[in-house]
Amino acid sequence: MLECVQSSSSRPIDVLLVGCESVGKSGLFRHLTGEKRALTSNVKGSTIAALTAPCKLNSKLRLTDLPGLQFDMDSKSTQLTLDRIEQEQILLLVVKATELKEELTLLQKELNLKGKKVAIVATHQDKYLPSNAEQNRVHELLQVPVVWINARRMNQAEQEKVITCIEHAKTWAVTASILHFLPSSPNPVNKLIPILRLRVIGPILACLMILAMFALPVYVAYLFVSWLEPITEQYLLTPITAWLEQIPAFLAKILVGDYGLITLGWYSFLWAFPVVFLISITTTITEETGIQEHLTNALDPWLRKIGLTGRDLLPVITGFGCNVVAVMQSRSCSSCTRISCVSLLAFGSACSYQIGATLSIFNAAHAPVLFIPYLFFLFIVGAIHTRILNKNATNELTRITPLPYLQGINWSAFRWKVSGVIKQFLFQAMPIFLLICLLASVLEIVGILSILRWLAMPLLYLFSIPTDAAPGLIFSFIRKDGLLVLNEGQGSLLMEMSISQIFILVYLASTLSACLVTLFTIGKELSWKHTISIAWKQMLTSVVSAAFLAAGLYFLS
């Protein structure tokens, strides 16, 4: 009996962080637990799964950061939160200090809080801190502990204040009529940046800013690599290649052959890494400052014409960093637009690895300027693809949601996110590409690569593309940067092809199918039936649009 009591007393106390989107739950969770995976983003839907960790100042408390609630749609992330709060746990309601009355009224209306142990944290204290008299009034009306904090920056004393608030959680007995008497904040709900509210100029400016988010780092990376490539080739690759040519032919083929681990591997790293690194910087800056939400909100009216909402554009933008993360972030989309969102990002979100590989191919063909029409064509066809094959009643979804405040960069979060991208590239992406290089070398040596060329021959013949380009098309199915194998022989194949052939080849390799990892993630997140549906529709759109592109280029030439 004594052992049973001791076991019960040592069991951790579960505390669920519950609130609307962009209120600062993840920032609060990170400070209280030290859990780096919860580094906050100033973007709706950045928390896509429940994350649990012990409180670092009180090990008896076990905190769980839940996705933000969206009562205007039936997203998967909201359902996850609703399912979790049905259990017997302490609820830490996290609301904005600037909208305390409105958000508590909404939570009271939508959640079954009666009888649950509740404590309240009001974030954004830096935007609005009520007077002592107003704070006392809030405590008297709610009869549960309430603290005001800035979730982005918290010292130990403020963390202890929140922990004390949790420890003194009380049973919720507040009615809607009582909440009506809460003091209202004098601060209005945050609105869209004024220039982005303009009917035509606003969306156009938002498009240009999103384009700059990716075009600027690509251009800087191009200038840097163009300067560095001849230096590394003269002082690094040439001496290594000359030395390794003396080793056995089979090993030399694998290391410094057309698909060599060193020759092709280094060339691919040189072109892909700066793009991945710089894009991670620009996207993280737009997330941290909150500007990304304002841009997608400004584009909401245009996106509804193709069956999406502004919210659905956030995963698509994330897809330019990593498609897998973007597919998971789509959990915050409405169930009626999620499939369309995933379909668009699988087709048109060129991940940073794909962007680096594409820029490398166009540069090897001495036509880097092709990257601009490539991205434009990808976007236009992606929009048409979504509009025709995925029709949704988006007008029934809400258009008005509170926007995040524009604010400074949280540099600890910034460093962690960018370093995470670098680690993912070095320890996941690059090893996989080196494996592709190794596989290509071995298949070429044993003669199987010629069989793969034969399998891809009908499609390549349709667009008058040399069959030697088949490996780039085939390996792009594994990973989008697999098309870097087209650089084999220092781009000798590309030199034999026309500009239009290269453009169509790169477009097909990019769009014919999402990579295997992305397809697997879609299967887990949605269903394999939806994955097959998305895949065949994408393949159909890719081939048909490539045919129109080829016809257009033929008549223009």
Overall pLDDT: 83
Major sheet characteristics:
7 strands, mixed
CA-based shape: elongated
By DSSP (H or I, 4+ residues per run), the number of helices equals 24
The percentage of residues in β strands lies in 5-15%
* Structural class based on helices, strands and sheet pairing: alpha/beta
* Poorly predicted tracts of residues: 1-8, 38-43
Tally of extended strands?
Answer: 7
Radius of gyration: 27 Å
- How far from one another are the termini? 88 Å
Q: How helix-rich are the residues, as a percent range?
A: 55-70%
Describe, in plain words, how this protein is organized in 3D.
The protein is elongated. It is an alpha/beta fold and 557 residues long. The protein has helices at 2-10, 25-33, 76-84, 100-110, 132-142, 156-167, 176-179, 201-244, 249-256, 263-289, 291-298, 300-303, 310-319, 323-329, 338-348, 352-364, 371-389, 411-446, 448-462, 470-478, 488-496, 499-511, 516-525, 528-556; strands spanning 13-18, 51-54, 61-65, 90-96, 117-123, 146-148, 170-171. The longest helix is centred in the middle third of the chain and has 44 residues, at 201-244. It starts with a helix and ends with a helix. Strands 1, 2, 3, 4, 5, 6 and 7 form a seven-stranded mixed β-sheet that branches. It is built from 24 helices and seven strands.
Write the layout of secondary structure elements.
Layout: H1 2-10, E1 13-18, H2 25-33, E2 51-54, E3 61-65, H3 76-84, E4 90-96, H4 100-110, E5 117-123, H5 132-142, E6 146-148, H6 156-167, E7 170-171, H7 176-179, H8 201-244, H9 249-256, H10 263-289, H11 291-298, H12 300-303, H13 310-319, H14 323-329, H15 338-348, H16 352-364, H17 371-389, H18 411-446, H19 448-462, H20 470-478, H21 488-496, H22 499-511, H23 516-525, H24 528-556
Parallel strand pairs: 1-3, 1-4, 4-5, 5-6
Antiparallel strand pairs: 2-3, 5-7
Helix pairs in contact: 8-10, 8-11, 9-18, 10-16, 10-18, 11-13, 13-14, 13-15, 14-23, 15-17, 15-24, 16-22, 19-20, 20-22, 22-24, 23-24
